[in-house]
Amino acid sequence: MNSAAKLRPVLFLVCLLSLSGCTQGDSYPNRPITLVCPWAAGGGTDRVSRQMAFYLEEELGQPVNVINATGGQGVTGHSRGLQAKPDGYTLSMMTLELSMLHWRGLTRLDWTDCAPLMSLNEDPAALFVRGDSKWKTEKELAASVVAEPGGLRASGTAALGAWHLALASWLISFDRTPSDVNWIPSQGANPSLQELLSGDIDIVCCSVPEARALLDAGQVRCLGIMSGREGTPLKLLNLKEIPSLDCELKGWRGLGVAKDTPAEIQETLVAALRRITNGETKVAGKTFPEFMDGEGFDRTSRPTTEFAAFLKKSDETFGELLGRDEFQEVASGPVGRMAFPATAFAMGGVSLLIVLLSGFPQRKLAGAAVSDSAVSTRQEVTTEKISDHNTPNYWLFASVVGSIVLFTLAGEFLGFVLSAGIILAGLSVLLGAKPHIAGLVTVVIVPVIYQLFVYVLRVPLPTGIVWW
Amino acid sequence: MSEAFSTALQNTLSPHVLLVMLVAATYGLFIGAIPGLTATMAVALMVPFTFFLDPVAGIAAIVTMEACCIFAGDIPTTLMRIPGTPSSAAYVDDAYALAKKGLHQKALGVSLVFSVVGGLIGSLVLIAAAPMLAGFASQFSTYEYFWLCVLGLSCAAVVSRGSPVKGLFSLSLGLILACVGLGSAHSLPRLTFGSDKLITGINFVPAMIGLFGVSEVLRNVLSSAPRDELGTTSNRETPTSRNWLSRSVDEVFGGIGTRLRSSVKWILASSGIGAVIGMLPGAGADIAAWVAYAVSKRTAPKENRDEYGQGSLDGIAHATTANNSSLAGAWIPALVLGIPGDSVTAIVIGVLMMKNITPGPGIFEPDNPQLSLVYGIYITFILANLMLIPLGFLAIRAGSLIVKIPCEIILPLILVFCMVGAFAIDGSFFDVQVMLVLGLLGFVLERYGFPLGPVVLGIILGPRLEETFVQNLTKSTSLVAFFERPIAGGLGVLVIVLWATPLILWARKRMVR
What we know:
- The complex is a heterodimer of chains A (468) and B (513).
- Chain A is an alpha/beta fold and 468 residues long.
- Helix content of chain A is 47%, strand content 13%.
- In chain A, strand 1 (33-37), helix 2 (44-60) and strand 2 (64-68) form a beta-alpha-beta unit.
- Chain B has 513 residues and is mainly α.
- Chain B has one domain (2-224, 260-512).
- In chain B, 73% of the residues lie in helices and 1% in strands.
- Chain B has 22 helices and two strands.
- In chain B, helix 8 (142-159) packs across helix 14 (285-299), helix 13 (264-278) runs antiparallel to helix 14 (285-299) and helix 13 packs parallel to helix 15 (313-337).
- Residues 228-241 of chain B have low confidence and may be disordered.
- The chains are: A alpha/beta (468), B mainly alpha (513).
């Protein structure tokens, strides 16, 4: 059979494939929804997102799968969520970083790029010291800062992250500058709390839920929450009441969609969210408010227009804070940002040079091998095989590379089932499989993979021009 | 106290909990065997289901899933040369080399038994000494972490295949890749060339899949010689009088008793390394596996040392012991301090608090009503590891069926799974592109004899290394401070010794010539 005849049954089977798994129904939602969380699995935002996904699924009747689009300190996740197709099938869990990142020049996105659906919580920043430290009140800590500017160390997140700005606004509230406390950048609350316990830093600034376990155990002490002058103190079970400080900085989380999402879809989502945040939806006998309370999260929720007004204010606050002169110099530390990559480059360059100078050992068909390179024995075996058979098959190599490129370029358009199906069937045939076997395997396995990942494992795969 | 213990025993050994563990084990084996799906992802996906379960069952599910997942990561490592978890990257070359000789079942059998042993010892450490060790863990500051990162990276560079200099080059590549994106130290974009995509950084999962998996597919396809059918050399004539079960058991577990007996010292050492590194928040199975592998290679009798990288069962055994015992170690700071030992325990803390169990030193007090749950967790650890033996055995047999699939079907299938795995992490095509680029990179590196393991570890630990370095300098600009704290000083000296040894050996060789 010539190659055209070989491919015909494969094409036919691919068409068959595209009919499998299609669902009926035009009403929203009629296929799985993706919820984009900008932060890593295990953190506070991830927990809230995964809970919310479960409740949304209960309300909307379609699986809601969470993906952790991490990176860029929030830029990746927010971009992915808010720049997705505005069809209501991608929801975005937004956090306070949205109000900050564009002021820092890391993205062009800001709150005006979203259609706010419902805010879910606002956790004020809090000041923590070690449980056995000498400071019992916020005033004592402030006095120590005044007495020894630059002497104390604090941490909580990356440089210029939310909690860093929170500490700065606390310092500003009693007329000090942000550089009066030495900020040690870290990856987040957990490593910072670890540092606090080890004794190497004095203060941690983060939200109460993030330090809850240590607080309950008495390992850390909370000197105050930043709910502002009008704010109410925090009452936690079995703990002393935590006062509200004069300055105000709250982390917030909320759900949004891309700006141009149709109004009816937004309404459906908002209605569902209302029911969830009011405690009308139950999953495993628990309501969403019960979950938030259990975890110690605040659960102030603001729908649409109220949320939008809140976003505007948050944006202005951070703009003002980040615009201050003090922050421009805070950004640079003792080591420049290119120092580390430069060192790595240098190390790589030097080692490569040494390798080249000591004799470049691996040539494709040479039998000689350097004694300390263990891969040479395997290379010898394969090179012998190569010289026995035809020359290296560059076409196959190119088609593998090409398949991956095809997947990245066309995957979003064609959807997983079609693109993976074409690749699997096509490559098998090219490698010498009989077309009907390749076709059979493809038709069976690809939809199985899809169903497995999307419906069982809850891991979203690209959908495409076809319904699923 | 014994009352709490007997309650715990009753609760854990109930059919309901055992069934949940069985389901969780299967789920864990499945997820671990698919490259690209990590234990963290599996636990995060499981959390909503734990709401329907009582605390004991919920935690039991997570513990079992985790243990099985880490072991199952060895299956694609051995059969397809794609590390299922970053810790498997330490011995991927050994495992795959054995598979090429037809000994994949033996390699996986060793991996299984030693994983279980490591897991059991780690659990015992957790049970016996959690509060005391948690105190030790909280002594670790950025100085100690800095040296720990350097130690892990050095082990990978120095003991992986090829000369340490090539290892250093691979390591540098990994560190450069780690710099792409936004570092927490400065929060400024680097090496992003203005691209919105690159600001995300290079995720190690698609990088690993690409470096090992895609490069292997490319290599097989390029040679166009039929891929060495795994298992051909082990098709021996078996007498039909022996039944299938005893044959299978022999293939997988043959010779394991002797191996266990002769490795007691190493088992203890590797489990110790694993448990200690695991209990340090943020340091986990990957560093543990590399350090254990390095120790194993360094302390191996001279005639065995060349096997490392070519199919050393000892290397696999010791590294896999360490990575399983580190799992239990990660629960120590999580339970005692509420600070997660790794990303899985981060999720677990959330689950615990949902069930109104607050981690903290008070958790071990005799009058704590939750004490029976803590004992339940301990019992679960032991049970989960024991359960792994029969289930792992079945998984190994199932995995061996894969090698029978002809290569023209299996190679494209592996490729599709690689693409799906890379995509699944963040739901992003960018990750698939990363996988491709790193696949080509891996292909080139292998061609010229450079090891791949240090690249992956560099990507994983690079950000931490830089961060701790900058943190240390921010705290105090003197370099002496790096050695001031006693543990930090000790680790620092260890690193210097690690690098000095090959240097001294090399200098001596030159003097002899």
